[in-house]
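Write out C-alpha cells for SET domain-containing protein.
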Amino acid sequence: MAFLFQKFQEAVKILAKSPTFAKDPRSLQFEADINRLFLYTSYNRIGKDADEADVEEIIDLANKASLADQQKQVQENIHSQIKDLCTLMDEILLPAKKTEERFESAAQIDKDQPRSGLRFALGRTGSSPSNHPGNFSFRVIFSAVIPETKPLKLADVSQGVKDHLGYSLAVRSSEIPHKDAGRGLFLEGEADVGSVIAIYPGVVYSPAYYRFIPGYPRVDAHNSYLITRYDSTVINAQPWGEGNDNREFWDGMNSPQAAKFTEQIAQTGSDRVWKMLSKPLESPRSGTRGEILERRNPMAFAHFANHPPKDVVPNVMVCPYDFPLDEKDMRTYIPNISFGNEEGVRMKRFGSFWFKSGSSVHGVSDIPILKSLVLVSTRAISNEEILLNYRLSNSKRRPSWYTPVDEEEDRRRWG
C-alpha cells in the first residue's frame, strides 16, 4: 500500500504542473487544486483494498477527464463522506425510531439519484450532489419545532464519531513555535489521505452581500476567521465559535461572537469615505437566513486550523463543497447559513468593491445549493495538529508568522 501511495503522490506532483491547464494564473491554480482533490478523494473512495490497477485508473482519469467532470466527481466524493457523517450523527443523536425513519428516506433518495460516468469508473455508489441546468427559486421554510435528540454534550458526540470514524477533532494550544500561534486544531486518532477532516462553519456571503460582512470593507481587521472560495464566496466562521451543546435555531446573529468582534470604523480622515461607501442599504439582520442546526457538530472546527511554520508541509487543503439543499435529512448537520436571498445576483467589480449590475441572474441548477468548504487530508494523519496553507496574498503586507509554503501558488491564487 505504501508503494501505491508513493506512486500516487508522484502523479499528483506531475499533473499539477501539466501544461494543459489554463494559462490564466488564477484559473491555473484552481484547476491544479481540483486535479489534486480529484486524485486524493478518489483514492480515498476506492479504499484500502485498492491495487495498482485501481491507482493507475485514477491517474489515467485525472489525465483525461475535463475540469467539469473532475469537479463533479470531487463533489460526489466529498458528498459521500459528508452523507456517511450525517448518518452517523443520526445514529448518535436521534432516538431509535427516528433513526429508522431517516434510513428509509435516505435509501429511497439514494436509489433515485443519477450517477456520473467517472463514478461508474470508480466503481462506487452513493447519492450525488451534482447540479442540473435550469432555473430555480427556493425559499427556506422555518419550522419552530426542534426535533427531539438525545441529551448528549458536544464532547460525547465527538467521542461517538471517533469510535466509528477512527478520528475526531480537538481545539487546544497550538504547537507552532510562535507567540501569535494561539490555539490550533488537532486530529485525535487516524485519518486516511483524501478524508474530510473538518467543515468550515459560519455565515456565507456572496459578492452581492459583501457590504454586510461585519467591519466591511476592512473585514479582516478584527476577524481572522474569514475564508474565500475561488468563486469569491466568503464564509465568516466567527459567529459559530466553538459550537455548543444544543440543536437550535441559528441565524449567525444570536451568539456573543457575532457582536463581540464587529469592527467600529473611525470617523476621521479617509475612513469616512470607506464608511460612506460601505453603508448598508438595509439592516444586516434582515438578510440572515436562520436554520435549525446541530451545534454539537464535532467536525465544524476548520476555522481553527493554523498555517504551518517554516519548512513544514501542510497536511490538509481546502475543497469547495456545494451542499444540495434538497438533502433535507442532512441539512441540520451542515454548519452554514446563507446571507441574503437565494437568487443569484449579477455583480460588477470596481477596485475593491462589488456592485449590483443589472438584473438578477438565475441559477444554473434546478437544485439549490449552499456553498461551503471542507478540509481534505493530503496524506495519512495520525494524532497531530492540522495545518493548512493559508495562501495569503503577496500583494499585501503579511503577518510576521506567515512563511509561504509555495510563493508561486500564493501569486497564482490571487492573480
